[in-house]
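Sat 14:20. Reprocessing the chain from the morning session after the first attempt stalled halfway. Input below, unchanged.
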Amino acid sequence: MKRYIWLLLLINFQLFAQQNNQLWKSYFSYNEIVDVTNGSTNVYAATENSVFSKNTTTGNLSQTNAINGFKPESITCITRSDVVNKTFVGNTNGLLLVINGDGSITQKVDIITEVPVPPNKKRINDLYEHNGRIYIATDYGISVLNATTLEFITTYFIGPSGEELEVLQTTVKDNEIYAVTRTNGIRKGDLNNPFLFDFAEWSTFDNGFWTGIITFNNQLIASNTNGRTYRHNGSAFVEILNHFQVGLRLKTNQSEIIVTTPTSVFVLNQTFNTIATITNASIPEYNPRFTAATVVNGKLFIGTEKDGLFETALANPTNFENISPNGPLQNYIFRVKKGPNRIWTVHGRYNQQYNPYPLDELGISYFEHQNGWSVIPYEDLLEAKSLSDIAINPSNPNEVYISSYFSGLLKINGSDISLLNNTNTGPNGLESLVLTPPNPSYVDIRINSPTFDSDGNLWITNAFVNRGIKVLRGNQWQSYNLQGITANIATGRYNTIAIDKNKTKWIAAYNDGIVAFNENLNNKFININVNNGNLPDPVVTCVALDNRNQLWIGTFRGLRILSSVDRFLSETELTTTNIVIQEGDLAQELFFQQSIIDIAVDGANRKWVSIANGGVFLVSANGQETIYRFDKDNSPLPSNNILDIEIDGNSGEVFFATDKGMVSFLGTSTKPSDSLADVFVYPNPVRPGFVGTVKISGLTDKANIKITDIEGNLVFETTSAGGTIEWDTTAFGKYKVASGVYMIFVASQDGTDSTVKKVMVIR
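Finished this time. Tokens:
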């Protein structure tokens, strides 16, 4: 399978790269600021996986992220060089990314591949520009880069015996380089010395414990771990600021000194007088924790840990404007759900064993096409913690249920928010787990898997209680007991619920395989597990029903299929099968021993399957063909850890929620229409330079599509699987068709419905 997949990728990768702007969208958060830096007119801010900037003259905001080909590991620092018109970005793994003036991205992996130190010692801590060189402070020492050619010049290991030494920041004064180290004070070397690569040529300038160093007005300025910042007068350090906390960042724009601590920002002028002091109480609406700050053109910019980038006037820092681009609360998105008018996301979490601790106290993010992202803050959510899943009422999309894996079930109806728990749902409602020995004051209600059935009833699971399956019918709760069904009743934990056409509930369970249940069949239960159901692992992570009534089952160690959910009606035991694919003379199991996180079925009955730390696969309806495989290296995915997949059946947009942000792929995963009344073609016309495909949507399933030129010569023919097909504007894949009008003839499978459309191609 691997050989087949990578061959496919080699064929399609260039096309994907060309079509990124057409096929992919980003839904990133810009609230978690790692570092900020200044240019002559712009401020630049870095989050963990992206960079954005604001022009202080025009007010224009621009973003650089995975959609632009910017693929960091985890950003640690940033600096801007207006001299060479480049922005340099450091990462935890030693990756150095360069955003060039034309917006292109250069990846420098020399530190990762060539510096002979352990991978955990390659973190980049600071970037400093001096005389056309970038001095890179790392956990092993200092590397030097030519800022113009982007070639690495040398590396300095500056420990007293030539060992690796964690360097936090560097600066240059009078052509001598000073390096603040974690454990060996400030080390010093002469840049005129041709033998500076020799550790013996370095000396200790000061033995103290320092966190940062800059050059300002031809003096050394350094911050100490004692919560004070000093200037060196030529013979000794003299205190210029007591900031009470250990400093996070020490910066200068050559006009001011900016010191950032977790709760304060201080700005000093040329004479070392403090001209501005900002505390987190200065922004009471947020009460933020600060991460970095800088000054550009008389404006102070402050980055925060969770609340974005703030701008205020340096001369009168009283009004603070959040200038981060619109986005969700944070990049870690645990679940996403697409409704008719909104995309809902939650940011809570639990681990593989369903442990939600430490509990998250986070809000809910939702996206509207007209208004962008909005956040319902945690303070409005009645103290509901560790939000884990989402269900939208199909008959009332304004009514949304959010499960909490600690506090119960949130009900959101417009601006009305209520919390359902063990106190207000009656004797058959939600239950708190019981400690041993019992503690009546402890309340821990672990709700998951909210799912509506076709009758509008809301089903959920309740972990660590006997009556683990619950349903809300109207205003009445009902519970179903799992005693005698599963082996681990007292510790039962559950993931997704899939409800089939027969109203059978298929529930993914931790250590208990699958619990299948139908209350309309005299409360019939079947437990599919390792012993009786051919599951490769007792931990079932997800279930998904396809359009042919098959149940696709993801486990901690592989994939299984239940051939027909109708078997539940007549059988008392159910056995699953694997999918075997043929590769030449070799046969192997699809996703053998792979940990599957999620499975989603698109309108063409194809399956999107995410693998733990392995990206996402799109396989054909029967699993025999791999259509796409996306990961961080060959696509705009910001991470290979895709926590949730959601498909908009109307538009075909596939959302990938990851631990480092959400992106979507604009494929052809649309649901089939009931008729051909709304068939449409886009783009139309196809203009010169377009490198994508023409999409024909609004199709019925298994419709026949023929495309001819204006003289009736056939250039393309296919049958739809779902509601959309693609045409690459070639004549049966051989050559690009010429400019002209092309006729599209569409007929339903039985021939009773048909339509004709036109598309113009301009070369």
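The longest strand covers residues 740-747.
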